[in-house]
Design a protein that fits this description.
This protein has 175 residues and is mainly alpha-helical. It has one domain: Cytochrome Bc1 Complex, Chain D, domain 2. 57% of the residues lie in helices and 0% in strands. Helix 3 crosses helix 7 and helix 6 crosses helix 7.
Length: 175
């Protein structure tokens, strides 16, 4: 093949690939239905992009001790009053019906042990694009950082809390 023909061929292939991709996305072939699972590769990529992004951006350090009992308990109250339970459940409350249709599914339990306090705080403050996880630090009346740190303190304590403590706190929330 002559060099010119080879370049022309490569250019044609590139154009064909571009048209194909454009048709796939802008021609409506790709489905945005939340009811459909993402292909494994897309899911894998989204999770890894998210983890890398959170790790890189989470640089704030807690301004108070996250072990303080009153901070942890205040965090439990904030967890309930901010509406986290609608999607994530917990503290004796089932997630709302709509949360069954979220894609990806909220799955706080699975990450709580591994996520660091600065990462957790960053997620609460900024939210996560394309997941349904809202940002609590933006909007007209952003939740104060101190409150988000207290929710962080509470969530990091959840795995080691006794069921007695949780029951007591649940009772406090319900009445
Ligand atoms: C509208 C539903 C909704 C609400 C309300 C909500 N979340 Fe989420 N949250 C999600 C979804 C969806 C994800 C992403 C799930 C996934 O792919 O792991 C998520 C992710 C998270 C993560 C990160 C998990 C990870 O993979 O790193 C944390 C931490 C979290 N939520 C905590 C909270 C807390 C605390 C609140 C309340 C202040 C809250 N969420 C409110 C839906 C919600």
């Amino acid at each position: 093949m002559k060099p010119f023909t080879a370049i022309a061929c490569a250019a044609c292939l590139a154009i064909a690939a571009g048209v194909g991709t454009a048709t796939f996305f802008f021609g409506g072939v790709f489905s945005v239905a939340a009811s459909e699972r993402d292909p494994a590769l897309v899911n894998w990529a989204l999770v890894h992009v998210r983890e890398a992004s959170i790790t890189r951006h989470a640089t704030d350090q807690p301004p108070m001790s996250l072990d303080d009992a009153s901070v942890v308990q205040g965090g439990a109250q904030a967890y309930a009053s901010l509406g986290c339970q609608s999607c994530h459940g917990g503290l004796g409350v089932k997630p709302a019906r709509f949360s069954q249709g979220l894609n990806p599914q909220p799955n706080l339990k699975a990450v709580i042990e591994d996520i660091t306090p600065p990462e957790l705080f960053w997620v609460l403050k900024n939210g996560i694009k394309m997941t349904g996880m809202p940002s609590f630090g933006t909007g007209k009346d952003p939740v104060p950082d101190a409150e988000l740190w207290s929710v962080t303190a509470f969530l990091k304590r959840v795995p080691s809390l006794s069921s007695d403590d949780l029951a007591k706190w649940t009772a406090a929330h319900h009445g």
